[in-house]
Specification:
CATH superfamily: Alpha carbonic anhydrase
Bound molecules: 2-acetamido-2-deoxy-beta-D-glucopyranose
Distance between the termini: 39 Å
Structural class: alpha+beta
Helix content: 10-25%
Strand content: 25-35%
Shape: globular
Number of domains: 1
Number of strands: 16
Number of helices: 6
CATH class: Alpha Beta
Radius of gyration: 18 Å
Order of helices and strands: EHHHEEEEEEEEEHEHEEEEHE
Largest sheet: 14 strands, mixed
């Protein structure tokens, strides 16, 4: 519908070059040549720990969520507040690893979640997606042994920390809702259209485009019957900070094969057509099941 601008995200390039400058001093040359292309890629996820040691930590994500190994719990319901508020601006960006959606709201109107496993308000920061090479595989978490083609991560930061960047320094910094999607035979499923309609504008790495602002509640998953799994884990991308309270609803949302192929047609930095991290060990962590 509209495309306001289309430019390189220069600040990300600068950050990337800075990271490479720091790393090139201390990493083996085989890894270094790889990091000249990208600080990480999905072709060799086992090497992430060489550059980002936390990726070898004991509380990593994603994990297999399984009904046989969960603890039932009763707490206050998870609440979604402000997800119907109209943003004033929205931006879609391809950062070379995923497509990321951010928004701006008038003062006090930024959506947030609270309740459930959360001991404070967690303010909406961004949404991004993980997908795979085909329509059966690509979500990061699995549920009862099932795989899904797409997972949407709604990233929220604990309100007192003020930003995602600052929240990354605290073990309770982020709450990420991971919405699983499954392919439906219906030809028209509009849930993801406000994002997928604009993917052609950000098909190249390090591009960004303003898009028509829309209420986040359109995207699905929100207000869904609140049965979800929750556990303590990490970012699923380097630097893999172990700062995430994960919330994964047990119901998958519909997407079409066309929407998946639109995501797959994005050019990522390392030319893979997928960006999902493999399952990580549970290492004795508890997974809690919330049903309200
Ligand atoms: C992946 O990374 C590991 C650890 O650095 C290395 O041993 C291995 O050779 C790499 N494999 C490929 C295919 O690059
Ligand atoms: C989908 O991709 C996964 C990962 O490469 C692979 O294991 C699986 O066999 C593929 N499924 C189909 C139906 O092609
Ligand atoms: C969807 O369509 C495919 C191909 O026509 C068919 O094999 C499959 O059974 C259908 N699934 C459902 C749930 O209708």
């Amino acid at each position: 519908m509209l495309i306001i601008h289309f430019k390189r995200i220069t600040s990300e390039w600068i950050l990337l070059l800075f990271i490479q400058a720091v790393l090139s001093a201390e990493i083996p040359s085989s890894v270094k040549s790889q990091s000249m292309v990208s600080p990480y890629n999905y072709e060799n996820v086992s090497a992430w720990g060489n550059l980002f040691p936390t990726c070898m930590g004991q509380q990593q994500s994603p994990i297999a969520l399984n009904k046989d190994t969960i603890f039932y719990t009763e707490r206050t319901p998870l609440r979604w507040i402000g997800y119907d508020n109209q943003p004033t601006e929205m931006t879609l960006g391809n950062n070379g690893h995923t497509v990321k959606l951010i928004g701006k709201w008038k003062n006090g109107n930024v959506p947030y979640i609270s309740g459930g496993p959360l001991l404070d308000d967690y303010v909406f920061g961004q949404i991004h997606f993980h997908w795979g090479p085909n329509d059966t595989y690509g979500a990061e978490h699995t549920m009862h042994g099932f795989t899904f083609p797409l997972e949407m991560h709604m990233v929220h930061y604990k309100r007192p920390y003020g930003s995602i960047g600052n929240a990354l320094k605290h073990v309770d910094g982020l709450a990420v809702v991971g919405i699983l999607f499954t392919i439906t035979n219906q030809t028209v499923v509009t849930t993801l259209d406000p994002v997928t309609d604009y993917l052609t504008y950000v098909s190249k790495p390090h591009t960004v485009s303003n898009i028509a602002p829309f209420r986040l509640s359109i995207l699905g998953g929100i207000y869904s019957p609140m049965a979800f799994m929750s556990y303590s884990g990490s970012l699923t991308t380097p630097p893999c900070n172990e700062v995430v309270i994960w919330i994964v609803p047990i119901y998958a949302w519909p997407a079409t094969s066309k929407q998946l192929s639109q995501l797959r047609s994005l050019q990522l930095q390392t030319h893979t057509r997928y960006n999902n991290r493999p399952l990580q060990p549970l290492n004795g962590r508890h997974v809690y099941f919330y049903k309200t």
